[in-house]
């Protein structure tokens, strides 16, 4: 059943992502106008209007800021931690396979922050969970890229645990919990993008792991520079990412993978 759900979710998102949906709507409206259907102006205006508003207003910030503010990072870093769990999503396994060196994307802080934490906590283990998150992929997993990157950054092999099968956040939580088998009283940090943390924290709780959120990769802020200094492609990418998280929260709650629609601290 998980395999079917995974494939369906990937296929549905292709036409449903906001940029694609708006473009399809605009094309539909223009096609109707071409055939003399005056009501075609409404889908055309809706589709094109989305792109205009995205360029004029910080919609990409508004959709993500509630997600990023939901789980503040702890004011004081724990004195002792058993380990750090890092979710996949920051590496480009297909580019790594094509070019032969570890490739990162805009969520690179997921990969750099754990190295700094390890240096401050010599007692901690580092766990990476991530396999193949796309329908079309090669033979390299996200965990393979993480292992190569952290090896080059000097992370000792005996402090590293790799989970190579997870394809989504739910599998990240279930499979890494099974791999680590955390003991009662242990402190584990969960490292992922701040906008992804509500969903990640919710599924880890559902999997039976009371893990401490440690958000990174913030994309929003309260200054005019942060809100307005973004190109149109970046605004579209960030808006789609935030929308995908809200859809994911609702979907995971309906599937029973979280105990609340919008998990909080």
UniProtKB/TrEMBL annotation:
Under InterPro entries, the record lists:
Cell_Envelope_Assoc, DUF218, Rossmann-like_a/b/a_fold
Q: Which PANTHER family match?
A: ENVELOPE BIOGENESIS FACTOR ELYC (PTHR30336:SF4), INNER MEMBRANE PROTEIN, PROBABLE PERMEASE (PTHR30336)
The organism's place on the tree of life at top rank: Bacteria
What is this protein's name? YdcF family protein
Q: Where is the DUF218 domain?
A: 83-248
Keyword vocabulary terms for this entry: Membrane, Transmembrane, Transmembrane helix
Q: What is the lineage of its organism?
A: Bacteria, Pseudomonadati, Pseudomonadota, Alphaproteobacteria, Acetobacterales
Mind telling me which residue stretches traverse the membrane in this protein? Answer: 12-33, 45-63
User: What species was this sequence derived from?
Assistant: Paeniroseomonas aquatica
Keyword Transmembrane helix found: yes
